[in-house]
Specification:
The complex is a heterodimer. Chain A contains eleven helices and 15 strands. By secondary structure, chain A is of the alpha/beta class. Chain A folds into two domains: about 180 residues, Rossmann fold (3-Layer(aba) Sandwich), CATH 3.40.50; about 100 residues, Rna Polymerase Sigma Factor, Chain: A. Chain A is globular. By secondary structure, chain B is an alpha/beta fold. Chain B has one domain: Vaccinia Virus protein VP39 (Rossmann fold, 3-Layer(aba) Sandwich), CATH 3.40.50.150. Helix content of chain B is about 35%, strand content about 20%. The radius of gyration of chain B is 16 Å and the shape is globular. Chain B: This is Methionine biosynthesis protein MetW.
């Protein structure tokens, strides 16, 4: 979806971005009164291909367990929309897009992106699709941040909100991890001050290291131990070198290499930055409850026991604020040893909770 | 859920538990209600459907929370002993603690929270002063195990039993005014109000109290 020079995206950085475009996928059919639209918000390195094969990687959609025919977000009943975030690299305008002023890629001239910017861009898309009110907004991790932002910024346009494994503000620890990742990218000489596209280089090593570090934070010690333990990779004994002797090393190297094939390094800087800046309460006098005061939206918050990146305490803080705001809120902490990644994996308890919440909300919305 | 310590007696006509119907009668229509230890949401959905209340719940078990979600009830997975402190003052018209107080670690603190969060509190509990309990302990010299209290002493979730008289004393201590008090007999029927406290305490299987902060 393209937005011309007369339809700029007003960004928190104080810049009116124009022209701009947003890439999206839809599934299912919009009903006559346009009341069955569900918006899926993707996480840091996700994209709009939530329930179809990814055209870049050829891999299946990233949330087939949650979205599809007969799934909790049932594409037989709902009109499902998923859009690439602003600042991303899968078709929506981002730092790799061409700056009309220079005819060159934006690189670091692209304005710094925030979660509210991402949501504003999605709202413009929803407007264009002629949808007044979303039946449900669903997302995990950074997607969950967008869900909360949607509910805070457009309470009358969100009937139900399902934020999963997320927080209303990014923690100091998480900002720290992101900074390590960004520094790894910037330390790669091929990054060239962000102008690698102009100069025909790629900061692949830096981005791969950033991904390796981040990937550890998505797992849990238990999950790592179960999957890899201290097992050697294709060898019986240590080589007394810095080869990838251990399976976990080999796995992380693979994750890093696979990631740089599909992701733009500058997008990684921008999107991680957006998460760092996220703090809903700060925009409401330090009170998260104020952000949701009088909200008509019904919420269901889900966390995972072994998620140490977005721990249950973050979810509880959201729940307490919603309670204080007299909002309708449900909360489930799912028992899982898979860490933050659990929200993307086979977690029957999460599906049961999501299905119960969405089905009951659909009945209340008259679209059951 | 299967409530700790009680055998749910149901109304033949409606299929609803008798103690739930009694609690529902104490709640003004259209009010805001928090059910602490709401189980599978049976009482909350009764209150929503019959009294038009805006109901919320806290439930410790994931199965219970999921059952509530499927009924469209906004229920939070949590623990009465630790999570009530996070609720603001006067957030609800009624806070209900149904068959749960005896399973809390700090019944007095929980009761104080109920009276702070709600303008009124409704508490129901199994009466440990019932004659059969007394017979078990007094004559047989064994911890009571009845239909109503089916757990052994070593695996019971009920760690703070009280009698109707004990509870009345606790209400006095925390400064709770008693707007209504009902004892249910073995058949789940309310006992006559004119009966003296000692009769209630001996023959009442459950106590149900409507309390108000003084």
């Amino acid at each position: 979806m393209r937005f011309g020079p007369d339809e700029p995206l007003m960004m928190d950085a104080g810049i009116a971005l124009a022209p701009w475009q947003i890439a999206y996928q839809t599934y299912g059919t919009l009903n006559a009164d346009k009341s069955n639209a569900v918006l899926i918000c993707h996480a840091l390195t996700g994209d709009q291909h939530v329930a179809n094969d990814n055209p870049v990687t050829g891999k299946p959609g990233w949330w087939l367990t949650m979205v599809g025919p007969g799934r909790p977000v049932d594409t037989d009943r709902f009109f499902v929309i998923c859009a690439n975030v602003i600042g991303g690299c899968m078709g929506t305008t981002g730092p790799a897009s061409i700056n009309p002023a220079t005819g060159q890629p934006y690189a670091l001239d692209f304005p710094v992106v925030t979660i509210p910017d991402m949501v504003r861009a999605q709202a413009a898309l929803i407007d264009r699709l002629g949808i007044e009110k979303l039946f449900c907004v669903v997302g995990g991790s950074m997607g969950g941040m967008q869900v909360l932002q949607w509910a805070a910024a457009y309470p009358d346009r969100v009937f139900a909100a399902l934020p999963i494994a997320t927080a209303a503000r990014h923690s100091a620890q998480n900002i720290a991890f992101h900074e390590v990742g960004r520094q790894a990218v910037m330390a790669d000489p091929e990054w060239r001050g962000g102008r690698y596209l102009n100069e025909g280089t790629r900061p692949s090593k830096g981005l791969a290291v950033a991904r390796m570090g981040a990937h550890i934070t998505y797992l849990s010690e238990v999950a790592l131990h179960r999957k890899f333990g201290r097992n050697f990779q294709d060898r019986a004994a240590p080589t007394f070198s810095f080869d990838a002797d251990f399976q976990i090393e080999s796995y992380l190297r693979y994750q890093g290499i696979a990631f740089v094939e599909r992701f733009d390094a500058n997008s990684y800087l921008y999107v991680t930055r957006a998460m760092d800046y996220f703090d809903i309460a700060a925009e409401h006098g330090g009170s998260l409850a104020k952000a949701f005061k009088g909200t008509p939206t019904r919420f269901c918050v889900i966390s995972f026991t072994s998620d140490w990146l977005f721990p249950t305490s973050d979810s509880r803080a959201i729940v307490h604020a919603l309670n204080a705001a007299a909002a309708s809120v449900a909360f489930v902490e799912v028992e899982s040893d898979k860490g933050h990644d659990a929200f993307l994996l086979e977690e029957p308890e999460m599906f049961a909770a999501a299905r119960g919440f969405i089905d009951a909300a659909a009945r209340a919305r008259g679209i059951a | 859920m299967s409530l700790p310590g009680t055998l749910p007696l149901t109304d033949m006509a409606s299929g609803h538990r008798l103690d739930f119907l009694l609690v529902a009668d104490m709640v003004e229509p259209g009010s805001r209600v928090l059910d602490v230890g709401c189980g599978d949401g049976a009482l909350l959905s009764l209150l929503r459907d019959r009294r038009g209340v805006d109901g919320r719940g806290i439930e410790i078990s994931r199965e219970g929370v999921n059952a509530c979600l499927a009924k469209g009830l906004p229920v939070i997975q949590g623990d009465a002993d630790t999570d009530l402190a996070d609720y603001p003052d006067d957030a609800f018209d009624y806070v209900i603690l149904s068959q749960t107080i005896q399973a809390t670690r700090q019944p007095k603190v929980v009761l104080e929270h109920l009276l702070r969060i709600g303008r009124r509190a409704i508490v129901s509990f199994p009466n440990f002063g019932h004659w059969r309990v007394r017979v078990d302990l007094g004559l047989r010299g064994r911890m009571p195990m009845t239909e109503n209290l089916p757990y052994s002493w070593y695996d019971t979730p009920n760690i703070h039993f009280c009698t109707i008289r004990d509870f009345v004393e606790l209400c006095r201590e925390v400064g709770a005014g008693m707007e209504k008090a009902v004892a249910l007999n073995a058949g789940g029927q309310p006992m006559r109000v004119t009966l003296p406290w000692w009769v209630w305490n001996l023959f009442g299987e459950q106590g149900v109290f409507l309390l108000k902060r003084r």
